[in-house]
Amino acid sequence: MQQSLYSAAVGMTSQQTRLDTIAQNIANSQSAGYKAARVDFKDALYQTMKTPVLEDGAENNLLVGSGAVVASIATTFEQGSIVATGEMYDFAIAGSGFFALRGRNGEVMYTRSGSFRAAPFNDEMYLTSQSGEFVLGTDGDVIRIPDGGIRVAEDGTIYSNDERVGQIGLYDFTNPNGLSKVGETRFMETAASGPAEAQTEGIILQGNLEQSNVSLADEMTMLIRSQRAYALMSRALSTTDNMLGLANTMHS
Fold first, then answer.
1. 3-state SS track over the chain
2. What's the half-sphere exposure (Cβ side, CA atoms, 13 Å) at 242?
3. What is the pTM of this model?
4. How far apart are CA 208 and CA 86, in angstroms?
5. Burial class (CB in 10 A: 0-12, 13-18, 19+), 46
6. Planar angle of CA 109, 113, 118, nearest 5 degrees
7. What pLDDT, on the 0 to 100 scale, is given for residue 57?
8. What is the end-to-end Cα distance of the chain in Å, rounded?
């Protein structure tokens, strides 16, 4: 009976994690470059039981589970739809790859969100994210924006008055699923992802943004399933608690 109490509690905790993940996906369904997350489960430890009815043998070994626990929270890197904005500093990646951003403390992050702007720094203009991180070029350095605006080719080459002034870098990883999520649309490399490598297959589209790849229909379906599973675990927990109380009363 105590095992059922534990299994129900573990199930409620796991479903709460999935509900939180679904809520985050829905909240970011309109965020450019956002990649949906999903919760993967695995069985908890099984225990072997023996029935007194059957003779010893393979069929006599019964397994009782301990519920399901969260195995991982994975990110789905499928391409989102690309929408034209007409803005000079909006960029979408068609295909694989990430933009690289350098934060205030020198840390490098990677994103699919190409909603950038021209921001002043030391009396010059630089290409940055909306929150102020520097966008990095193919050489890993920051990108200075000359007066008069820019035109960006599909390979990321930046032109000002038909003069080449730099190139937006695209980077990719051997295992993107190994990236560590550090914000709604930001990732950092890990040992599991492998080091960042220059990406030459992706195409940069100026004046466009990649939309979130969240499917609201899928999220709402999963939300209903998770709410029902959570309610079931809650009833199991309540029933087990009542049975334990009754057993204690009878024992006393």
1. CHHHHHHHHHHHHHHHHHHHHHHHHHHCCCCCCCCCEEEEEEECCCEEEECCCCCCCHHHEEEECCCEEEEEEEECCCCCCEEECCCCCEEEEECCCEEEEECCCCCEEEECCCEEEEEEECCEEEEEECCCCEEEECCCCECECCCCCCEECCCCEEEECCEEEEEECCEECCCHHHCEECCCCEEECCCCCCCCEECCCCEEEECEEECCCCCHHHHHHHHHHHHHHHHHHHHHHHHHHHHHHHHHHHHC
2. 6
3. 0.80
4. 7
5. exposed
6. 85
7. 53
8. 18
Report the alpha-carbon distance of residue 128 to residue 85 in Å, rounded.
18
Which residues are within 8 A (CB) of 90 and not within 5 positions of it... i.e. 6 or more apart? 114, 115, 116, 206, 207, 208, 209
> Quick one: pLDDT at residue 212?
96
Q: How many Å apart are CA 133 and CA 142, to the nearest integer? A: 10
Residues 30-89: tens digit of each pLDDT:
999 999 999 988 766 555 555 555 555 555 555 555 667 788 888 999 999 999 999 999
Q: Token pair for residue 140? A: 């890993």
C-alpha distances (whole Å) from 74 to each of 38, 175, 192 are 5, 12, 13
Handedness of CA 23, 37, 188, 41 (dihedral sign): positive
Rounded to 5°, the CA angle 75-168-129 comes to 60
Q: Which stretches in the chain have pLDDT values below 70?
A: 1-6, 43-67, 241, 251-252
Cα–Cα distance measured from residue 165 to residue 152, given in angstroms and rounded to the nearest whole number: 10
Rounded-to-integer distance, Cα 182 and Cα 80, Å: 20
